Amino acid sequence: MESRAVSRQITEGVIWKQILLFFFPILLGTFFQQMYNTVDTIIVGRFVSTQALAAVGTTGPLVNMINGFFVGLSSGATVILSQFCGANDKKAVDNALHTGFFLSLVLGVLVTALGCLLGPQVLRWMRTPQECLGMASTYVRIYFAGALASMVYNMEAGILRAMGDSRRPVLSLIAACLTNILMDVLLVVVFRMGVVGVALATVLSQIVSAVILLVILLGEKENPLRLSALRLDGRLLRRILFIGIPAGLQFVTFDLSNTLIQSGINSFGPVVMAAWTAFGKTDALVWMVSGAFGVAITTFVGQNFGAQRYDRVRQSVRVCLAMSIGTVGTLSLLMLLFRRVILGIYTLDPGVIESGAYMMSIIVPFEAVFMPVEIFAGTLRGVGDSVKPTLITCFCVCVVRVVWLATVVRARHTLFMLCLCYPLTWALAAAVFTVVYLRMNWLNSRIGGNGR
């Protein structure tokens, strides 16, 4: 009953209020998810070493790239499910629920195998310094050994959000965050297990969040998860993959380019690597806000599209775009003003703090420029079109960054030129998404005189 009531709220009522009611639980959940990553960074930087901080940081793009593809792939299930929920098709909802959950189990096994087998070699290709390579390889192997829990959690959270419930995934992440903090202190500070302890704490926290949501889904009254009913419906799987594969590739294009940038960062040595890690954890605050708006608009559009409320689809895009630009712009200004204080939370090394502050001065002022990419891409995915966002992102982000690194950065090997590729590619992608959205009549033909 609760899920059905929230679903009705998404397709009715004042748009900005309903978006915020859905957005804030997602943001809070992302905050706690990022919190235990941040705690990892603080504890490694303060209780292990600068080399260990650099080692954990250099694994970020690799972990995000592999996870991102499969999380994007599973997002196809949540988009389809949100449309079925908006249309109030109970049989289709049940089928999508069990197909999606089974898919997450398959993806979890694949991510574990790929991460453990290929992770250390990819770190070598990224030119990870020898003094960091051993610790980074250890972290990657342990992290991906627990990837099944991460894949299952992301699918479970996506299922609940597609049904209109963005609150209970937050509760599981709060429990995971507390678990991670406790285990970090115990394994790293008390038992001195270093990078191994940090990786184990992360894996254990992911297991906690996955188990909590599993219990919730099994106990649902409206659309319960039944383990005996898990299956892969071929027709539905094709629809999921049609949306999910392009979405996964879009994640990969970002993370592949970030992996190449991390390779460039590594060429400046451990101090800059550690600064980049600290900056990345700080910057995650902005991107979790951006991502929360993206998830909110995708689900909001998906349910209203399924309910044939096309008027609300277009209005919600305008409202969400304005709110996201204003929020991210404000956060960016605060980060820029207090960047040295913030970086000092992660490390006491003055060289790391100064390098991080320099990078932030180049990148942070332009982060609001990325918001049209997040909102328009989420809108297109919400109506079932994942191909266009992928093509735009692949060219404007991945291809342009690769060309920039291979030409400009190679000719002028400076940290400024390396960092500059972020605002340039954000601006290019935002411009293309804006033109595509405004010039396409992909929705107008579906809107009748009564706004439905």
Descriptive account of the structure:
This protein is an all-alpha fold and 452 residues long. It is globular. The two termini are 26 Å apart. The N terminus and C terminus are likely disordered.
SSE layout and pairings?
Layout: H1 2-10, H2 15-47, H3 50-58, H4 60-87, H5 90-125, H6 130-145, H7 147-162, H8 168-190, H9 194-218, H10 234-266, H11 270-306, H12 310-337, H13 339-346, H14 350-363, H15 371-382, H16 387-411, H17 415-439
Name the features.
single chain; 452 residues; mainly alpha; 17 helices; 0% strand; disordered C terminus
Distance between the termini: 26 Å
Helix content, binned percent: over 70%
Largest sheet: none
SS-based structural class?
mainly alpha
Order of helices and strands: HHHHHHHHHHHHHHHHH
| Dominant shape | globular
Tell me the radius of gyration. Answer: 21 Å
Mean of residue pLDDT values: 84
Estimate the strand proportion. under 5%
Domains, number:
1
Instruction: Give the low-pLDDT segments.
Output: 1-8, 445-452
Question: Using DSSP, what is the number of strands?
Answer: 0
* Number of helices, where a helix is a run of at least 4 consecutive DSSP H or I residues: 17
